[in-house]
Amino acid sequence: MTFKSPITEMKTNYIATGGKEQTLQTQLDQLERKYERVYLSAYDSVTRKLYVDSIQRSRLVKVFNVANDAFMNIYVSFGKKHIDSYLGLDIIYRNRNSIPKDSVVLLYKALPAFLKNTGNAVALKVFISENLVKKGDHFKDFQVLDIQGKPFKLSALKDKYIYLTFGSLGCGPCRMENKEISKNYDSLSKNVALVNFSLDVNKVEWEAAAKADGIIWYNVSDMAGMSGKIKTLYGVQAMPTSFLIDKNGIIVEKFDGYSPDNFKEVERIVSNPHVL
Q: Got the DSSP string for 3-26?
């Protein structure tokens, strides 16, 4: 493989060559690049407040959304067209929740034999063949190991609400959530059992994140990464994805992404369990 790029705006200016999968990635990059440049420019202008008034800011946000939607449509369409590749399979698995399930079934059936035993394919089969948890369902139990290597079973937690969150070292919002929990651990842990489910596959990185973020609550993993069965059964696509489970084991709320308001909602529900 070869990689060439100017230092300036490397993400949208690099040229990479290699085997079949890299050739497909290059084709995808070429299709997406003009939209990527637009939404990155709009995002930069909004985050750096390079606008003169609220009207201009709204226009930038609209530009970002339109370009990002076009980018994602190209991305998913490319995955469908090239489902016979590792890249195509990865795209479909990552975007499985946004594709009609009957279409996902057909795409899975179209996979060549050499892809059927990969982690993403196995997880995709779980997605199409098993009932995924949703708000209002009883949680799906699982047994894994905690960060010290000791067995952990979700159903062993009793007499408290459970806040179960899926995240990883490389996920900025996940790390922000960890630090928010750490800061408010004493008050949160009185009525809620806190469980961090790491999607990292590198134990050293998992331990580093736990130390840096001050995680002293339950910290577990199946070490199966982004295509693990448990993650798939819980319908985790964005990170962090979190679930509030009541004392009867019912999922009463699901949070996609991180916001400090998540914990205000947790406290509201825990304090008023009959008012959801």
A: EE--STTHHHH-EEE-SHHHHHHH
Short-list 130, 189, 251, CA closest to 243: 251
Distance between CA atoms of residues 75 and 31, nearest Å: 9
Question: Residue 129, SS3?
Answer: helix
pTM: 0.82
**Can you tell me which residue has the tokens 């084991």?**
249
The answer to whether 244 touches 234, Cβ cutoff 8 Å, is no
What is the residue extent of each domain of the chain?
A: 2-129, 143-271
pLDDT of res. 3: 85
Q: In DSSP terms, which residues pair with 245 in a beta bridge? A: 162, 251
- Residue 173, preceding peptide bond in cis (omega within 30° of 0): no
Which range has highest mean pLDDT (76-80, 188-192, 271-275)? 76-80
Burial class, 276, CB count within 10 angstroms (exposed 0-12 / middle 13-18 / buried 19+): exposed
pLDDT surpasses 70 at 276: no
What are φ and ψ of residue 182, in 5° steps?
A: -60, -40
Q: Which residues in the chain belong to E strands, given as ranges?
A: 2-4, 15-17, 143-146, 151-153, 161-167, 192-198, 218-221, 241-245, 251-256
As a whole number of angstroms, the distance between CA 217 and CA 19 comes to 45
DSSP label of 275: -
The domain defined by 143-271 folds into: Glutaredoxin (3.40.30)
Q: CA–CA separation, 262 vs 177, rounded Å?
A: 9
Distance CA 73, CA 91 (A): 11
pLDDT value at position 159?
87
